[in-house]
Amino acid sequence: MSARNHTRVQADEFDPSAELQGFGRGRKNVGAVVSFTGVVRDDDGSLDRMEIEHYPGMTQKAVGAIVDKAITRWDLAQCLVIHRYGPMRPGDQIMMVATAAKHRVAAFEAAEYLMDYLKSRAPFWKKEFTKTGKTAWVEAKVNDEDALSRWEENGLA
Amino acid sequence: MVDVMYFAWVRERIGAPREQVETNASTVADLVEELRAREPRYAEAFKDLSALRVALDQELSDFDAPLKGVREVAFFPPMTGG
Predict the structure, then answer these.
(1) Separation of alpha carbons A126 and A41, rounded Å
(2) How far apart, in whole angstroms, are the C-alpha atoms of residue A106 and residue A71?
(3) What is the pLDDT along chain A (157 residues), one digit of tens a residue?
(4) Is residue A157 part of a domain?
(5) What's the total number of domains in chain B?
(6) B80: nearest CA in chain A?
(7) Residue A2 neighbours by CB distance under 10 Å
(8) What is the domain-level CATH number for residue B16?
């Protein structure tokens, strides 16, 4: 893994503002820092909690490899990904991505690329538990795969 | 002998997170055939391969991939991270 790669897979909560303290700082070649935080959503008030299962062993490697690709492709000075597993409540933070690059286009594109790949190529599975005791595995969407082909068409994925 | 792991609803349908499987299957698809023949819960879990993904030694792979030298096979539904 690249030294610019900061990947963490954890059950614990995290504080995005604390994570961004000093991120991309102290480097003369950084002109743009972009960050994204994913939050547990509850569209109709029926969700009690979500549980994210993962594949210990593979997860860290798969996420690390996706981050390394983004670092190379957009020449990122630094890249941070934190992805949680285990039980989470609506409003809880699931994951965050931060990119530091020379220019804004690279920082934004790299963050979007990371989100698209983490969604369908990192071994996480979400299960929803409703307040009435129903459970359902979240299904992958067809447009999740379309989102990946967008990066492949450029011939660089 | 390979370690076979199951995640998400595949794990729930089969009723175990992992097991050791004695097999001479040459590809993942051959291993799936052997598992399907075991018991209805396996046949049910492996009914539709287009709804499944496979990783060999923790790398995403394909159902026609060879199993030679592989120690860990994992079956799971399409991933839903992010």
Answers:
(1) 12
(2) 10
(3) 788 999 999 999 999 999 999 999 988 899 999 999 999 999 999 999 999 999 999 999 999 999 999 999 999 999 999 999 999 999 999 999 999 999 999 999 999 999 999 999 999 999 999 999 999 999 998 888 888 988 986 655 4
(4) no
(5) 1
(6) A125
(7) 15
(8) 3.10.20.30
Q: Write the burial class of residue A49 (CB in 10 Å: 0-12 exposed, 13-18 middle, 19+ buried).
A: middle
Print the domain residue range for A112.
5-152
Q: Which of B5, B74, B78 sits opposite A140 (nearest CB)?
A: B78
Q: Which residues of B touch A (CB under 8 A)?
A: 5, 7-9, 55, 58-60, 74, 76-82
